[in-house]
């Protein structure tokens, strides 16, 4: 859901299975892609579709935490994985 | 010495004091001089001189280490002597092996040693073989520890010759293997700016040639390969697999026997686990090679058949995966089995005997169409392999024994509602049809019925197209069935469509009929059936008078065109086609021109129709043999020149057809292609473009000479006044462009005059933009006329020539031009640059780049736009040169992203995106700045701009960061 006037973007995503171990990575990738692609004025909210993941709460919390996201991107290994998710070709 | 005024003996005497000097340096210099002399005139030496010199040099080998390099040079010169007496080569080599520690020498001197050995191996093979294994051993010692890639290439070549020419290896096989295999797998990156140009690939190939040159290495090599397949490096894996494949070409059962189980398990593991397609393909090739190798060896009755046991191993490991069409391992297993089965008939039987019944069973067991599709695809793969062996005896072939079951499965698939399954079924039909004797006549009729149903009545266009294609590829195999069964059905369908008109459904079905008719016309006998049907249809359509008929005519023409393309390769069919279709079309066209000229509404439609007819005629004509072409030209020329219509069928119209009354291009109508274009421009409604094209075609082909000059002069004289002013300027320009192109293509001297005229017109405020676009026409390959396919006179490198002749003028013109027309020059320049072959462009780029950069700062937005569109491909193609200007480029592009014109913003963003293809090291300093600057266009009010901004910014984020 995009609200241009209030500069907010909310994204819901559904992991393949309730125990999907990649949920955090998927969320992080979505978030990073949005950060890179949207003007700075937007406030982002990426979260799991309610009721579709076992540790939905924990993941949402991690994704909402700005510092944890920033820290994750400092980690070169994690950044590599995220970049791999985001580079279309290769 | 060269002139013969001195002898070598005199030289040696003169050098005497030097050669005997106690200081090793002076001695070295003396010998160096002597060696240089010998290198230049070794061919003049006498046998006796050579003997003495060799003895001297051998003796010198024991000398001080400073002297050795020159001594080796001298020996190399002597080794090239033809008069070297027998025995000396052996003694030289012995001396070298004994006295010199090769690996402590410099690279160049080691290279000299290798060349001495190579020279001797080339000329004194017999003598060296007399040395026996000692020679091999000596060489092993020489090359042991070699590190330089240049020397390695030579050394590998020597080893290969050692093995290939049957030198005695004696007990040193393992040593020889060790000394070469230690380089495997090659891990070598050529240093940047390497002048020797040795690539990793060269080393890999020459080492592989050594390793796979003899079965004697097998017992050492195979374990090494198995070990390297486990390696983490993909290159090592690939290399070992390729080497294995190469080895299989010479190995036999004996060598492989011991290692088969472990080879199989490594291959299986790689195929099942790997994510890389390359590795998988290589594995499959290797497996294929292994299985070929095993099936090649002759069976003796008492030994166990290795192929059987190997294949049963494979079967055992793969079979159960085939039963689970949803799982990941299905395809790898199927591919492995197919690779092994494709090796030989025996392997094929062995595998299909067990796999095919299994697959058929599975097909029935799994009701879901996606699963069925997977199974059918695998089945198809196995059936396709059968084609390799051609016709097989009835009782041997496994698929034949399963014929009924296979057919029923395929037919069931064709009836399935799932389109995907249908598509696979159709492909399977094609394969089945191409297996000789597989389909019984009744099955065949069923197949044709299915194809007709699918082609005409299936709703999904994909499967109907596939069905037509299948019909097309089966038709040449069973022409009788298709012409007897399918063509009449289609004809019927076409006619029934005419009776009850207008419903949309019918319209599309008629289209399909036409397409299907074209599709099955892949065999001469069928062409003879279908062409009359199509022509008949064309006539009936033409007689009707509604507007939509033009559409119909166009689609018939398209079908005819397709038929023409299909029968081009076949001389007889082509001639038949040409004889039947071309006169008929011409007659119709002439008749149309006669009867419908006054009706203006009709005219527009006709142009479309004509446009559809032209490719038909040109396709029918291009592949005619010269005699036939001449024959038909002799019909066509009177037609156009004198209105001679007698050869056209149904010639019931008056003879008023004389298109060339104006007479301008009368003289040069010998060539058929030109005639075809002439045909087009003779009709009243076509615009000047086609006429211009026609004239250009004639000019391009006309032989050099006075006549041509006269024609050209005439044309130029007529063009010039209308170019200067008046309502017909654009027409004149079109003609000028085409004529220029025709002349540029053939390097005609007049072409420079015409291009100068064009360059002048670039400054014209009215025609300038059109002229600039005209440069595109000049440089690009034209799709319909004036290209190689229609035998135009195209000289090689005409683009390069045009570039060198005209770009300086363009640049000059740009500098001198007024602000309004600068863009024209730039656009012309960018057209020229874009069509230039890359290598030429890269060398010329530095001079032009400053101009382009300057143009970027120009405030005119058209200039900006054309510069940006010129720069973008350059960024992608010549990153090295562009990176020198990175600073200017970044600044300019970023400032242009806030231009008021949307198109400029988009182009600038595209360029910024293209920048990321420059080397990372160049980009990194700008990364932060660019990313910050690109944040602004993300919020642009135009969606297209935002889209480009997102793409560019995303790519910049990836610059230099891991995981790109």
Structure commentary:
Helices cover 49% and strands 16% of the residues of chain A. Chain A has 90 residues and is of the alpha+beta class. In chain A, helix 1 (23-37) runs parallel beside helix 2 (56-64) and helix 1 (23-37) crosses helix 4 (76-86). Chain B contains 48 helices and no strands. In chain B, 72% of the residues lie in helices and 0% in strands. The two termini of chain B are 65 Å apart. Chain B is mainly α. At the A-B interface, helix 1 and helix 4 of A face helix 48 of B.
Q: Brief overview, please?
A:
Chain A has 90 residues and is of the alpha+beta class. Chain A has helices at 23-37, 56-64, 66-74, 76-86; strands at residues 2-3, 8-13, 43-48.
Tell how many strands the DSSP assignment of chain A holds.
Answer: 3
Main sheet properties of chain A: 3 strands, mixed
Largest interface by residue count? A-B, 18 and 13 residues
* Classification by helices and strands of chain A: alpha+beta
Helix content of chain A: 40-55%
Strand content range of chain B: under 5%
Tell me the name of the CATH class of chain A.
Alpha Beta
Indicate the mean pLDDT of chain A.
84
* Rough outline of chain B: globular
> Could you report the average pLDDT of chain B, rounded to the nearest whole number?
71
- Could you tell me the strand content of chain A as a percent range? 15-25%
Distance between the termini of chain A: 30 Å
| Main sheet specs of chain B | none
Organism (chain A): Fregetta grallaria (White-bellied storm-petrel)
GO cellular component, one term (chain A): cytosolic [4Fe-4S] assembly targeting complex
Protein name (chain A): MIP18 protein
GO biological process, one term (chain A): protein maturation
